[in-house]
């Protein structure tokens, strides 16, 4: 009787993993090299000295003046003069014709422009955008850090662990999880490209509100990914669309209330890095046995960010409403 030994066959996939890791590492090294070239060509020097001079020149006790906004409507009135009433052109009235160049210059010099300028607050319902107080400013800065770092931690967690989630939650095959991640990042990239156009026409708070709704909708759909493949693909694409604009839109929204300096930006990014480190210890040990923990974690981070966003809006509105009881606005 021959002894048979059970053999474990191990398949080495390292040669297949080499190309994507090389591509990712090359892109990261290329980005660092480009940053170094930019620094050597044009060094970044904060313009603090000129700002200090401007601050010293300003009167500290100067009262807060209403902020005015141009309506971008220009009415051009042409003063044609008495010669036009007699049916004569300016060139004919002078007795000679100097050509189209003279007429064009004469018409441009005779134009009068009148701009319609209105204050930002012309009704009690529209608040003035003013610099918040010290306590309100610090509170908004702290809430902005929570809003920014938590939603981007949700983004990083999904990008890192979604292939493992789909593998164990919906029994998808390895290559299918790779395709799912590719589709998600493609929708993510296209949405970011489109957001550049949208950001010129839509306020950041409206952009954030819509994308919060999309993110929560996608998480609800992904909770049913183990029952329906179409729902899984739909939720995956929606998450890429919803999470795409938070980096730029959150900074833009917070900067409507105060300037995001280098120090404030460092605090925001440092808190984001700290949360991403903690994410590895929360997701890693439990993801294979309980893959739905990714949805719970992403949902909690998105809810935390949404709560901070709502609190920032409430605090800003209350700070502005205190300044509504001022003298009537001056219309120029």
From TrEMBL:
Q: Which UniProt keywords apply?
A: Membrane, Transmembrane, Transmembrane helix
As given in the record, the signal peptide range reads none
Superkingdom of origin organism: Eukaryota
Q: Any stretches that span the bilayer, and where are they?
A: 20-41, 138-158, 178-199, 206-224, 230-254, 266-282, 294-316
Q: Which InterPro entries match?
A: MFS_trans_sf (IPR036259)
**Which protein, by its recorded name, is this?**
Uncharacterized protein
Organism name: Oppiella nova
């Amino acid at each position: 009787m021959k002894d048979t030994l059970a053999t474990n066959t191990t398949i080495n996939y390292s040669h297949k993993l080499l190309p994507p890791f090389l591509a990712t590492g090359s892109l990261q090294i290329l980005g660092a090299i480009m940053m170094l070239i930019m620094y050597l060509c044009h060094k970044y020097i904060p313009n603090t000295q000129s700002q200090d001079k401007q601050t010293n020149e300003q009167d500290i006790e100067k009262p807060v003046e209403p902020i005015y906004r141009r309506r971008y409507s220009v009415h051009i009135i042409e003063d044609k003069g008495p010669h036009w009433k007699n049916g004569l052109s300016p060139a004919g009235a002078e007795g000679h014709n100097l050509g189209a160049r003279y007429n064009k210059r004469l018409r441009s010099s005779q134009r009068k422009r009148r701009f319609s300028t209105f204050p930002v607050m012309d009704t009690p319902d529209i608040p003035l955008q003013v610099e918040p107080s010290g306590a309100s400013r610090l509170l908004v800065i702290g809430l902005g850090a929570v809003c920014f770092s938590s939603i981007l931690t949700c983004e990083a967690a999904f990008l890192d662990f979604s292939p493992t989630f789909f593998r164990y939650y919906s029994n998808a095959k390895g290559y299918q999880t790779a395709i799912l991640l590719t589709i998600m990042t493609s929708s993510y990239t296209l949405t970011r490209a489109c957001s550049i156009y949208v950001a010129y026409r839509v306020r950041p708070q409206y952009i954030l509100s819509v994308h919060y709704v999309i993110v929560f909708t996608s998480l609800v759909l992904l909770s049913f990914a183990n029952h329906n493949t179409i729902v899984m693909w739909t939720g995956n694409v929606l998450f890429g669309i919803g999470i795409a604009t938070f980096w730029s839109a959150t900074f833009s929204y917070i900067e409507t209330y105060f300037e995001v300096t280098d120090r404030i930006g460092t605090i925001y990014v440092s808190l984001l890095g700290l949360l991403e480190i903690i994410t590895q210890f929360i997701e890693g040990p439990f993801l294979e046995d309980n893959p739905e923990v990714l949805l719970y974690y992403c949902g909690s981070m998105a809810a935390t960010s949404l709560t901070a966003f709502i609190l920032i809006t409430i605090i800003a509105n209350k700070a502005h409403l205190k300044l509504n009881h001022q003298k009537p606005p001056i219309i120029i």
